[in-house]
Amino acid sequence: MQMQKKINSWLITQVDKGTQTDYLELDSGEFLSNEIIIEVKNSALNYKDALAITGMAPIIRKFPLIPGIDFSGVVIQSNNKKFGEGDRVFATGLGLGELQHGGLSSHASTDADILIKLPNKYTHSYIMGLGTAGLTAMLAVLALHENSIKPDAGKVLVTGSSGAVGGIATKLLLKLGYEVVAMTSRPEYNRDYLKSFGNIEVLDTDDFLGNPRMLSKERWASAIDVVGGKVLENIITETNRSGVISVCGQVLGLNIVTNLAPFILRGVRLIGIDSAFCSHERRSRAWDMIFDLLDVKDVNYLSEIIDIKDVYERSKLIVNGKNRRRIITNNSN
Question: Per-residue confidence at 105, pLDDT binned at 50, 70, 90?
Fold first, then answer.
């Protein structure tokens, strides 16, 4: 297929000590230089993307760069035998939107080793309704299971449960039979939404922002935390003996202040979740589990589709904690 000369993309450039984000018409020859070119049907707007787009954190490692750590689309040119014209593919993480041009564009270009063929029964919007958020959530749940936290172990606390990663993690845990407690920063707004997931308790993030004790009463068999900061500090002191905390976010910051007592007196374990660069084998296992657990109806309920041109305004809502659900972008012209 003959490649068009222009593409429509978001582009982040460096300006003085800050960044500037614009939706532009770009020269395809300059930005689509890898072995495979994909016409992007859908992408997604992750928390990391929102930080990059608004300039709130130094996510981008080189400039100028097309943001977007996820995309799904159709191969229109390929110089690799692994993929041919017309193949439906998707990609998450692995440097997209950070080290190389990403998916918030009408077209993307990458090497074959980061692409996965999209099963025929799934749409591009379905896989982007999961994307990095879904993969992260599944890896976080897997970490509990692999460390002997079974559904009968007790309550599992999920922070940021009205957002993308937290919401998907909550749904996955419920599907697997766990007893879930959902934490949200706006319970008056999110309670009914979260209760619609199933029989779960809803807690207010504000109740976890005080200074923690050295050890508190045991409350949680395990937790999945996307928030960090004071919230994580308090969860550590409240986790049961031999409990596991999957850590996969830093909404309240990268730094925590804690003590050794929960770790050496209770055997609490913190496990970091790296969805961006995890191995192909682990990535494949996680996707197989997600496909088994979450159907199209689940993903549609957990997500919302917006036009790609609305990405900047929605990013501002995401970084300010005012967005609910997973955001899918419609990238078709």
Answer: very high
